[in-house]
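How a chain folds remains the central question behind the approach discussed here. For one protein, we set the task of working out the structure tokens from the amino acid sequence alone. The sequence in question and its structure tokens are set out directly beneath this paragraph.

_____
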Amino acid sequence: GKYLEIYFRDGSISGSQTTDYLLERSRIVGQSPGERNYHVFYEMLAGMGESEKKKYHLSAPNDFGYLNQGGQTFLDTKDDTQDYLKLMSAMNVLNFSPTEIDGIHRILSGILYLGNINYQGDEISSISTMSILKRTASLLQLSETGLVSTLTHRLTQTREEKILSPFTLPQALGARDAIAKALYSRLFNWLVEKINYIVGAKSVKRLKGMYSIALLDIFGFEVFQRNSFEQMCINYANETLQQFFNRHVFKSEQQEYERERIPWKQLNYSDNVQCIELISKKPMGILSVLDDESSFPKANDFTFLDKLKKNHRYNSSFATPKIQDDIPKFIIKHFAGNVSYDIIGFVEKNKDVLRSDVISFLATSKNTVISNIFMEQQNLNIARASYGKRTAGLTAHQGRTSAPTLAGKFHESLTGLIEAMARCSPFFIRCLKPNSDKSPNTFESHL
């Protein structure tokens, strides 16, 4: 989702600023049946000229493992070619340099080729598609030998030496996908920051005191056949926004009626505070328990579920299926209905950590967009490690320097969003999904 603020001075637009929320990174490396990856990949393949395609070694969407898993590479309701031309026009209007545009294309193309890298061997994996790896390294402007090592081995640094440990096949595939997700998500964040700078948010102080109109365009309540960490975050955001809506429309208005002594009839509405506290209240809310488990080396999805059941077995907003199937689950009773969440992947997704040796390697890229993005992260890691050494004599809590988790960052950004909205005079537009085909003038009754 995104929160767009447009600032005005003397009746004219003076600047804007965009805040993004929870990029769905799992979509980059896998899609459900009937879904596509992010549109920009298909737009690039459809809209590029032949000479550009040759430069970046691009072909049809079905040729790339990261694009063809959902079986949906073309949409009747979307013109990928025209949308790519509009994207390039927007970049030119915003004065992106040719070097930056080339860097963006190289990253997107490199991600596609990362998804085509395959392995052989189960216990000790090696790359079986070296020609694909060489092309990936060329696109990302990285060392071939360094990329091979990063995709097949884990580097462990001790006081005396560096130890390279070979990956098993699942670990190797996970390392490959982690790099693809990191490249895309950090490129996305870099683009948001750059556009904010270009369109007028060069100085946050300069925007203070101006009048503004803000538009929140955020994901709706989600429930699928399989729901995971991303759906829980999205539904937590919807619970919080529903509470904001309730308080503004019902509580605030009724209090205003009482102050003005206007006759009115008491309206009853469902208060979802218990569900929100189940998810976010410290120290035993789901997000807090997840963060704790993410910091323990031996913790996993199953220990996370055990702690949830222990702490919330008497909470009426929480439940577990009486009969668990192959993938253990827990249930949250949301305002919009009950949702069952598969626990597999919760702890790993929440850690949101790319290995420090991978960050250092990506920072060596000759692609300035990549190197600048990961150099910043590398410097942050060095500063965090230095702080950890200086506070080594303190208690674990006082000297804690662990990297922020995805749940922690999402909770913090959501809290900031609600605070920003509370300073405004909100208007609410409820959007209904009329059909599954994105067709005009068509309503499906079952939706």
Observations:
- Confidence is low (pLDDT under 50) at residues 394-401.
- The longest helix spans residues 229-259.
- The chain has 17 helices and ten strands.
